[in-house]
Amino acid sequence: MPKKTRLRLYTVLLLVSAVIAAPKVYGTLWDTHFSEQTASEDSDSFGDIAPLTTPVTTPQLQSTTTTTTTNANPESSTEANGSATSATSTTVKVPQTTTTTTTTTTTTPPPAIVYQHVGNFVPGDAGYFADALFIGDSRMVGIRDYGTIKNADYYCNVGLGINNMSKGVDGVSLDAKLSAKTYGKIYIMLGVNDVGYAYEPTITKYAQILALIRQKQPNAVIYILSNLHVTKQRSAHDRYVNNPMIDRLNTAQSAYANAADIVYLDSNALFDDAEGNLNADYTGDGTHIYAKHYKDWCDWLTAHIAAP
To answer: Quick one: CATH architecture of 117-306?
Structure first.
């Protein structure tokens, strides 16, 4: 084979190999970069605030148990072999006896999923929210825009998270928002935009945000709201935004509730299906509930007011 032909062939093979390998290489680099993100980009925002500590007893968020019980007798068969008496030229056949055992399997249906709230709650009315502040991401934006709680203040934005809180909302920092007015209760729902970040630094930053709220609003009741689940389909196909990751974050956040001036409400009790995923009938994108359901959410929050 001529030298030029060989060189062209090697060049083509190298190009084909590069095309095949590139997606995997770049995908690996991107995944590594994304999974190793930390809160360092804005760590100076809360650097002088000690994280809020969890109570001595850490509550469990959710317990789901599926038990399958099988009661069976081992299959057995008894067989007597035939015997022949050659001296009398008579063959005697012993009848075969077969015992059939029926196996019965009893399956215990899984118990209902338990959504554990931390605190004692009583029904309230719309007036309760007159001195409330709601902090959160796009779900909180939905409560503001489509819900019925119109007398509260909101500090929320699409994409807002624990790790980008230093960017503020509409040019206002969280510190400034908390310093501008006295609130009687503060609702906070953050984290679904942070599940791809490094876990421990994210939880530390969340504890610092809670500490800032307590520092600026010492008499307010803090409501930690769970992050809503995503649908079963999205959870199964999304490496980061999936329900096991969301549950891990929710569990960590719920641990800061003390059932007194910091309570925890799991809103997934309102929107989950029987398997603990966001009900596919309530969403169009697998993540956010339809606008019409925010009224139900507001009614549910009004029915769960921390008892004095």
So the answer is: 3-Layer(aba) Sandwich (3.40)
